[in-house]
């Protein structure tokens, strides 16, 4: 198992935001975490990324408890709903940024940056600044930056929610393709059932801090 959540509970004060959640992702899987606003998705993502220490239970990445791993060695990349690109850096500098913390020589770094810009179809924009790109292109730079360090786990936290419908559908297909090509183990977090069902191999459905269903899209939701 690549990622394993073992009876994870997190409380803010006395209120559990995440209440005894257990599930796992096999290596190479694309799993959607689906649930309405307020059900605990962000809290779960923060625990997976090691940003919060859960009240109880464990998050294991390749068998190791994420809270035992120092921040700089954590192999989880997260893409958020809002852009986190650096406006004063070019596209290639932004993508290289994720590699800078690693022990990557500069020549190899250029190679890796080119490889990932190629993957997201942005090789001609490598010298552009984020403000010169379209919303969809900026999302793709974020994907390249998240993937370049070859993380053990990619978490996409509502990555398409701020976009209009057409762009959302285009990027959904892009994400599916990129995930297939790289084979990166991916947790796709969304409140959008259609998005979850079209993208994911399996769904984990959350309600009110707990898992209310888990399985393949067509076994959870009958087609009309
Ligand atoms: P989602 O991402 O699904 O919207 P969250 O994890 O953000 O869910 O929130 C789950 C519950 O925990 C909500 O009731 C929310 O108000 C509460 N919550 C989230 N973060 C905090 C916090 N820092 N302090 C107190 N309550 C919080
Ligand atoms: P999302 O739906 O993406 O979770 P929110 O507006 O619920 O967006 O949460 C945004 C931020 O505010 C998160 O960092 C979350 O932990 C925090 N937060 C959410 N609910 C509360 C709350 N009741 N008290 C304090 N912080 C909260």
Structure, briefly:
The chain is built from seven helices and ten strands. It is an alpha/beta fold and 224 residues long. It has a six-stranded mixed beta sheet with strand order 6-7-8-3-9-10, sandwiched between helices. Strands 2-1-4-5 form a four-stranded antiparallel beta sheet, with helices on one face.
N- to C-terminal separation? 34 Å
Strand count, sense and barrel status of the largest sheet are: 6 strands, mixed
- Overall average residue pLDDT: 93
What is the H/E order? Answer: EEEHEEEHHHEHEHEEH
Which structural class do you get from the secondary structure elements? alpha/beta
User: Count of DSSP E strands?
Assistant: 10
Computed Rg: 17 Å
Poorly predicted runs of 5 or more residues: none
Given the structure, what is the number of helices? 7
Multimeric state:
single chain
Secondary structure elements and their pairing?
Elements: E1 3-12, E2 15-25, E3 30-34, H1 41-48, E4 56-61, E5 64-65, E6 76-79, H2 91-100, H3 106-119, H4 135-147, E7 153-157, H5 165-182, E8 186-190, H6 193-199, E9 202-207, E10 210-215, H7 217-220
Parallel strand pairs: 3-8, 3-9, 6-7, 7-8
Antiparallel strand pairs: 1-2, 1-4, 4-5, 9-10
Helix pairs in contact: 2-3, 2-4, 3-4
The structure holds adenosine-5'-diphosphate (ADP) (2 copies).
């Amino acid at each position: 198992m690549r990622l394993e959540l073992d009876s994870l509970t997190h409380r803010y004060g006395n209120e559990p935001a995440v209440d005894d959640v257990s599930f796992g992702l096999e290596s190479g899987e694309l799993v959607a975490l689906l649930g309405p606003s307020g059900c605990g998705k962000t809290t779960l993502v923060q625990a997976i990324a090691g940003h919060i220490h859960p009240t109880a239970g464990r998050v294991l990445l390749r068998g190791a408890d994420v809270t035992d791993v120092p921040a700089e060695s954590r192999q989880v990349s997260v893409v958020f709903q809002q852009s986190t690109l650096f406006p004063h850096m070019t596209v290639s500098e932004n993508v290289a940024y994720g590699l800078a913390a690693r022990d990557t020589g500069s020549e190899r770094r250029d190679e890796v940056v080119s490889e990932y810009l190629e993957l997201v179809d942005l090789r001609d924009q490598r010298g552009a600044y984020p403000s010169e790109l379209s919303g969809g292109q900026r999302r793709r730079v974020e994907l390249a930056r998240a993937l370049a360090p070859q993380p053990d786990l990619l978490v996409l936290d509502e990555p398409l929610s701020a976009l209009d419908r057409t762009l959302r559908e285009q990027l959904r297909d892009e994400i599916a393709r990129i995930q297939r090509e790289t084979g990166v183990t991916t947790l796709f977090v969304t409140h959008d059932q259609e998005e979850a069902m079209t993208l994911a191999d399996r769904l984990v459905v959350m309600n009110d801090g707990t898992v209310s269903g888990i399985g393949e899209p067509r076994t959870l939701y009958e087609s009309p």
